[in-house]
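Input chain follows. Return structure tokens only.
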Amino acid sequence: MNETSMDPACAPARAATRATAMPPTAVAAVEIPCDAPCDAPCPRAAAMPRRVCDVCPDAGSRLALAVARYVAGARATGETDCIEAAFAEAEAALPAESAALLVGALGGLVRALEAHAGRPLAVLPASCCRATADEAALLEHVARARSDGAGAAEGRVARTAATVAALLGPVGRTAGRAS
């Protein structure tokens, strides 16, 4: 088959490349081959292999990632269902008053990171087995604040991450409901 008989959508001059398919500000999503294989299609899956279990060492980090994904989704779409899902996720792991504070603090952290980056954060659905570089950066800020304590926080992002860290507790502590 020669170029003239090809489907116009597949012609080399008109084919969408990775650079034109994704906006230049988009952060690459990366495949996370955890215990169960993930068959979800992702054009940039092999860019930087990063698994959720690698960026989330404990239950507190996994909770922060899930809630941050819902909050960022709500900011991007304007849907209140995303905020409801964030509260439901947090309330399943924490007492209601701590859950509300965590959702608010993560909302502040998402806003601070977006302001710092000058663009919306690239996030994946809460149940996705992959992580973006933006999500990894958010979790690095929280992990740093959890290990350093709130006293080391300087700047808007660090102060907001320290608030999240205070609600999650030290690294390694399992987030859970108080008895």
